[in-house]
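Hey team,

Filing this mostly as a record. A colleague (T.K.) asked me to run one chain through the structure pipeline before their review meeting, and I want the input and output archived in the tracker in case anyone asks later how it was produced. No errors, nothing strange. Just documentation.

Input sequence:
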Amino acid sequence: MKTCSFALAAWFCVSVLVAQQPPGMPAPVKEHEWLKQFIGEWEITSEAHMGPDQPAMKCQGTISSRSLGGFWIVSEMKANMMGTDITALQTIGYHPQKKKYIGSWVDSMTDHMWTYEGTVDSTGKILTLEAEGPNFMVEGKTAKFRDIYEFKSKDEIILTSSMQGEDGKWTTFMTGTAKRKK
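Output structure:
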């Protein structure tokens, strides 16, 4: 009788402990795997157009991208635009519940932290991220921005940044090409 009571008590204690175990940690999903193509060392050339009457600003730099736990890509950009050194940090990950790619961007030129949300197109080659931030054309206002990363190959990405005007139209203000360093 005592053995049966002891076994029953032990089973009850184990059952309570198992029921109180925290859930397991999440594992990366296929959308996180998609992000791995960003990993590496890149050279970038870009051109920004800040207005119809403004000359194009050329920029050259580097991007160093690594994985953080298989969930995030962390990229550090270093560039020089018109004699000014620029550094930026970007994160891109995937939120399974939202079914969206998410991320952030901070840089040495502004005090704004950009937060992204977006999707990969049906070809699996184009990531489009959107954010809201300071309107460069109208002080004190915000605007929607769109960054597009198009993988032309495993060693080349075309980058495009656009801003949505008050009329709802998107205007491209920056284009660039990132090439994997050999």
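Quick notes for T.K.: The mean pLDDT is 90. Strands lie at 40-48, 57-68, 72-81, 84-95, 100-107, 114-120, 126-134, 142-153, 156-164, 170-180.
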